[in-house]
Amino acid sequence: MSADDLLLILIVTLGSVRLLVWLLVGLSPVPGSGRDPGDALLAAMTVLLFQTAVILAMLRAVVIRKYGLSWADLGLRPAGRHWYRRAVIIAVLLLPTVALVNSVLIPMLAEEPFRNPQLYAIAPAGFSWSALLTMLVMAGVVTPFAEELVFRGLLFPWLRTRLGVPAAVLLSALCFATLHGAAILIPALTVVGAAFAVIYQRCGSLWPAIVAHSVFNGIMIVVLYALLAAGVKLP
Questions:
Q1: pLDDT score at 33
Q2: Which residues, including other chains, have CB under 8 Å from residue 201's CB and lie 6 or more apart?
Q3: At a CB cut-off of 8 Å and minimum separation 6, what does 71 contact?
Q4: Which of 90, 206, 212, 229 is least surrounded by CB atoms within 10 angstroms?
Q5: pLDDT over threshold 80, residue 23
Q6: DSSP assignment letter at 188
């Protein structure tokens, strides 16, 4: 694959995700604004579906049709069952790792109260059971599938053949971290992306990395909504 085609896919992926965060922060109901939380949830689901459809369409048009590759070439190959168990364990271990990295770096780097735009993208309408279930499906299953195809299935092997495994792990993880739109979170999310890349490198299948990504996101979503249910307000 040419560098131009790869760059096009990355621009579309990064751009669609940044647009998603911007839209959902703007659509999040503010007390006294009169906005319907249900409308914000519907908008979130619509934008997430659109973002995923755009990413998959780009992969199909550029990678599958233009270069004659298959989804298996992007890593959607069977993996041993033990890798799925390992993926779940790794995802759980990443949670305290991310918390530790953030707890050390954010106080050092943030000069003002930190506002994570991801929180508003995941919970645009506050707490409700329908919002929780919707986000578990969308941000916990659909989005990880699309993101893993781009960053581990496409970008990581492309970098690996040119720069070697260590550089490919680091650079693909940095690109993955950058897409989330919060500079202060890049170190922690780079660790997460690197872990997913190592899983893919070791087992040769993208499915365990997708499982790890889904479990990681799913736990974060459940924790966030549990806090909202307890009355904790987003910063």
A1: 43
A2: 156, 160, 165, 169
A3: 64
A4: 229
A5: no
A6: H
Q: Can you give the pLDDT at residue 66?
A: 81
- Rounded distance between C-alpha atoms, residue 138 and residue 16, angstroms: 15
Q: What is the mean pLDDT of the chain?
A: 81
Domain that holds residue 220: 3-229
Within-domain flag for 107: yes
Query: How confident is residue 151, by pLDDT bands cut at 50, 70 and 90?
Result: very high
The pTM score is 0.85
When divided into structural domains, the chain yields a total of: 1
C-beta pairs of 68-76 under 8 Å, 24+ apart in sequence: 74/149, 74/153, 74/154, 74/206, 75/148, 75/149, 75/152, 75/153, 75/157, 75/200, 75/204, 75/205, 75/206, 75/207, 75/209, 76/149, 76/153, 76/205, 76/206, 76/207
235 inside domain: no
